[in-house]
Design brief:
Layout: E1 2-6, H1 16-30, E2 34-38, E3 45-48, E4 51-57, H2 61-71, E5 75-78, H3 83-95, E6 100-102, H4 107-115, H5 119-131, E7 135-138, H6 141-149, E8 155-157, E9 181-185, H7 194-198, E10 205-209, H8 215-221, E11 226-229, H9 233-241, E12 245-248, H10 257-264, E13 269-271, H11 277-281, E14 287-289, H12 293-300, H13 305-313, H14 317-328, H15 344-350
Parallel strand pairs: 1-2, 1-5, 5-6, 6-7, 7-8, 9-10, 9-12, 10-11, 12-13, 13-14
Antiparallel strand pairs: 3-4
Helix pairs in contact: 1-14, 2-3, 4-5, 10-13
Length: 351
């Protein structure tokens, strides 16, 4: 089976959507499914207003049609709601082709934080976008419940995973910082709510790994915080592993793969009790959720690092890929959908 995934998010971006799609392609290949990407590569583009170092693709309808026809997919999945996603949707609807989508980013909250546009307007637009899909895939039970209440329909689960060979507790970095070390990793941008973490009165040291448009401002405002910049691969894993607590201050992420990466490194998570953390932690003794983020950070200290690792091992990219593929099968001739179990932590959250 050949699947075309249309996505506006692609390299050089480093985010959860890109990493999820890359992992999907690798794992699906082992399951006999070929994932081909319709990405911004090769299209003219313009700088993104809120992140000038990245560019937004501006394809023509003819170019999109040519790419799709060249790939000749058995199934089409639209991963993002940007220009490429919109034009792929238009292509499918014009030809009466069924397609699936995924809801991966809370754009209404992001847009509201930057431009003061009411969330209700953005949700109405997204609801129309996804209503045309045969299935809209979501990453957690709590996100499915939230979108259902907002009028979204035909929702199906597509969980996430973590590479537990790349992210391990082994070989933690040594920076000689006072302990405990509270670390946050991710894009340094307003929607990640980093200020909520950096302004906390905590013992020891605060560390931020990542880069983004808010980095210069936060470096100036919080000079005692250690900003390490962008790290990838084993170097990233070593910095995460050195932490005593991984702090996830976001209020808007739909999942937060970085949480799984921290758990795989044996580091407990401190977060707000919102979509993503609520599903990943799922009442297990591997993190602390509290509306008082400082209290969550302190409560997470001393939790079992082995328990964190064991929970991460229950999330596999192979199982994630199987869920994705099974969500497509009902719309392929001659295929019968099969049940794919949720990872243990997700199943607990769903119950």
């Amino acid at each position: 089976m050949r699947v075309l995934v249309a996505t506006d998010a692609w390299h050089p971006q480093v985010n959860g959507v890109v990493r999820t799609l890359e992992a999907l392609a690798r794992s699906a290949r082992d399951l006999g499914v070929d994932i081909q990407f319709l990405s911004p590569q090769g299209f003219r583009s313009m700088p993104m207003p809120t992140y000038p170092s990245l560019r937004l693709a501006l394809p023509s309808a003819r170019a999109i049609a040519a790419r799709i026809q060249e790939i000749e997919p058995d199934s089409i999945h639209i991963a993002t709601e940007g220009p490429i996603g919109l034009m792929t949707r238009a292509y499918c609807r014009k030809r009466g082709l069924r397609f699936t989508t995924s809801y991966t980013t809370r754009f209404p909250e992001y847009i509201s934080a930057r431009f003061a546009i009411p969330e209700s307007w953005s949700y109405a637009a997204l609801r129309r976008f996804h209503a045309a899909a045969s299935v809209t895939m979501v990453s957690t039970p709590s996100l499915a419940a939230d979108l259902s209440q907002r009028g979204f329909s035909n929702l199906a689960m597509w969980g996430r995973g973590v590479d537990t060979d790349a992210f391990t507790p082994e070989a933690p970095a040594e920076l000689g910082l006072p302990r405990p070390i509270f670390l946050c990793h991710g894009r340094v941008a307003i929607e990640k709510n980093l200020e909520a973490f950096l302004s906390l009165d905590l013992p020891g040291s605060k560390v931020v790994v990542g880069e983004g448009p808010q980095e210069a401002e936060l470096r100036t405002r919080f000079p005692s915080v250690h900003f390490l910049g962008l790290k990838v691969g084993k170097e990233l894993a070593s910095y995460i592993a050195m932490a005593d607590v991984f702090v996830f201050p976001s209020l808007t992420d739909t999942f937060g793969i970085v949480q799984l990466e921290a758990l795989a490194c044996g580091v407990p998570v401190a977060a707000y009790p919102v979509t993503g953390p609520r599903d990943v932690i799922a009442g297990r003794p591997v993190g602390a959720l509290d509306q008082d983020l400082r209290q969550a950070c302190l409560n997470a200290l001393g939790l079992s690092r082995q328990a964190c690792r064991e929970v991460a091992l229950s999330f596999s990219w192979e199982n994630s890929a199987r869920q994705f593929i099974e969500n497509l099968r009902p719309f392929l001739p001659g295929h019968r959908p099969a049940s794919v179990p949720l990872p243990a932590a997700m199943a607990t959250a769903e119950r």
